[in-house]
Amino acid sequence: MKVVSVINFKGGVGKTTLTANLGAYAASQGYKVLLVDLDYQKTLTCTFMTNEDWKKKFSKTKTMKIFFEPVLNGQLPSLKPLLVRRAVANEKLDLLCSHDDLRIIEPKLTGLLSNVDVPSLAADYMKFVSCLRRALNNIDNLYDLVLLDCRPDSYFMAKCGLYASDYYIVPTKLNEADTSGIEPLRNELKSYRAKCNEYISRLTNSSYLPMNLKMLGIVPMMTHVSSGKTLIKAEQVFRDKLEGDFYVFNQFIKEAPGLFGSKIRDKTGAIVPVVLSGSAVTPFIGFSPKAAIIRDLKALGDEFLERVSRK
């Protein structure tokens, strides 16, 4: 089982769009996929259902709130009862839903880390940040790939997700404001990895696994083209700069007004990400034909799966 966090400390860069479409495409290719929504805004959750359905069917019994609340008391609940099967991609995709109340729970969990953020209390620190990794390890026989949709911050849930991950992937717009934060993000994650591994090294007879988090690459999102598949000059400049220090995915995803974020149903009536929409009816999307966007998403999915499989 490979675990990948999708993260950027800058919001509005297409993080959830990338998570949903990569996961859905992987499932359509035969991978058993789990998507984990760690953002209390529930955008990933509501990519696969309406908010009304979430409230009626899952809000009280199948969300990450039910997982994280006992963690406050040092318990480790099972994720298995919380899994939601989505009737898409031959039923090879499961979801762990978020909950609005995570915005209330997370500060309390972050406070736990603040109280034990000293080397002498390494065991307590690792007990908390490893909760998601330990829970995922208990269901690792069910999945080939797990994708975590992280909030744009470095608080408790992001820390849990990153410790649980083998890799992370960074979606970004190709402009100065968004790309300038990628190097600080990488440095912060390197420091966090070093800190966890230092704490683990202090513990005798520890069952905690070292944190081996690596960057899988950067995905240009919401791009613009001047002709054909060529990026406009201003965006190409920033892509070239990134390629000097990072792996940048060859396939980029173009801006598609009205398409991403809309509720799209497949032929069975299930709500699906764009990559699985096929001939489904979608809203008007301006200059970006849906077929071209689907083609680009599939090409990105192939590139992503190839990189994950050989790492």
Percent strand equals 5-15%
Order of helices and strands: EHEHHEEHHHEHEHHEEEHEEH
Mean pLDDT: 91
Give me the oligomer status. Answer: single chain
Return residue spans where pLDDT drops below 50 for at least 5 consecutive residues: 279-288
Shape by Cα distribution:
globular
Strand order of the largest sheet: 3-4-2-5-1-6-7
Q: What's the total number of strands?
A: 11
- Helical fraction: 40-55%
Largest sheet: 7 strands, mixed
Computed over alpha carbons, the radius of gyration is 19 Å
User: Could you tell me how far the N terminus lies from the C terminus, measured between alpha carbons in angstroms?
Assistant: 12 Å
What is the count of helical runs? 11
Structural class of the helix and strand makeup?
Answer: alpha/beta
Any overview of this molecule?
The protein has 311 residues and is α/β, with parallel strands linked by helices. The protein has eleven helices and eleven strands. It has helices at 15-28, 51-58, 64-71, 102-115, 122-129, 131-137, 156-164, 176-179, 182-202, 233-243, 290-310, and strands at residues 2-6, 33-37, 84-86, 93-96, 145-149, 167-172, 214-220, 225-227, 230-231, 264-265, 271-272. The strands form three sheets. Strands 3-4-2-5-1-6-7 form a seven-stranded mixed β-sheet, with helices on both faces. It has a two-stranded antiparallel ribbon with strand order 8-9. A two-stranded antiparallel ribbon has the order 10-11. A hairpin with a 2-residue loop joins strand 8 (225-227) and strand 9. Helix 6 crosses helix 7. The chain is globular, with a radius of gyration of 19 Å. The model is unreliable at 279-288 (pLDDT under 50).
